[in-house]
Amino acid sequence: MKNLFKIKNLTLILSLFVLLISCNNDDNTVTPVDNSITGLALKTPDLSILVQALQRAELATTLQTSGTYTVFAPTNTAFTAFLATTPYATINDVPKEALTQILLNHVISTKLMATDLTNGYIKTLAKGTASSTNTLSMYVNTTAGVKLNGGATVTTPNVLASNGVIHVVDKVIGLPTIVTHATANPNFTSLVGALTGQGQPDFVSVLSGTGPFTVFAPTNAAFTALNTELAPGGIAGVSAANLTKVLQYHVVSPANVLAATLTEGQIVTPILTPAQTFTIQLSGGAKIKDANNRISNIVITDVQCSNGVIHAIDKVLLPIL
């Protein structure tokens, strides 16, 4: 009987021991820390509207799982300022598809630390209506801090996440038009000056429109070379009417012509009236032969905008005037 009593006591003690261990393990259960891009945004009060937007667009889970991303994250103040320019009172009122594309325009599919960002173009995950294959371009300007598409500035860089990096920005980055990219890139200041010069049509409104447009955009160096070519009067000696023709000669519409679709000897008809053409040459690199048999090199290709595409060229094209 004593042995039976001892066995019962031992069983009771063992049961209590197991129970205590079990309770102790429950007390020490560690909840996994979510250091994903979405997880960090959830823990940042000033990114609460961004979180709402990601959830509405069904992108929160995407940025919480595997993958590697760079996200330019607008603050609550940035979203409030953005909403003030729209008919929508809250982020949940913005049409879902439009909101999705705006958010994707803040996402890069690779991890880019601030030191990886240099002057030039990178690709976002957004799409405009102009191209079914080419995602939108973003112009990065690192001359003074980091500025994106000529508007948003990085205010807090390099917030490391388990699946990439966040750079906090002070503005929502809208889908860029032809005009957005022309004005964002300081290499196009001469072109912008010509487009907005006295006596010119409202090119800004036109190139901000639906399009699609393909613009062969001369760089500042191209305009400097033209000024020398037209000496002694230079560009200043060109009448407003003839300058309009020159500018129209660089625009093709309706078209979103990517570099890969250009062919040797292709005849291109721009929006110039009466119609004149120029010719694509691919031997030794993509070039354009204008109506005066002058040759311009295509030096940057496929800058995708929401309403078209830009290719930079190193010489101004001249029609027969």
UniProtKB/TrEMBL annotation:
Residues 34-173, 175-317 form the FAS1 domain. One of its GO terms (cellular component) is extracellular space. It comes from the Bacteria. The keyword Signal applies. Residues 1-27 form the signal peptide. Pfam families: Fasciclin. Keywords: Signal. Gene3D superfamilies: FAS1 domain. This is Uncaracterized surface protein containing fasciclin (FAS1) repeats. It comes from Flavobacterium degerlachei. The lineage of its organism: Bacteria, Pseudomonadati, Bacteroidota, Flavobacteriia, Flavobacteriales.
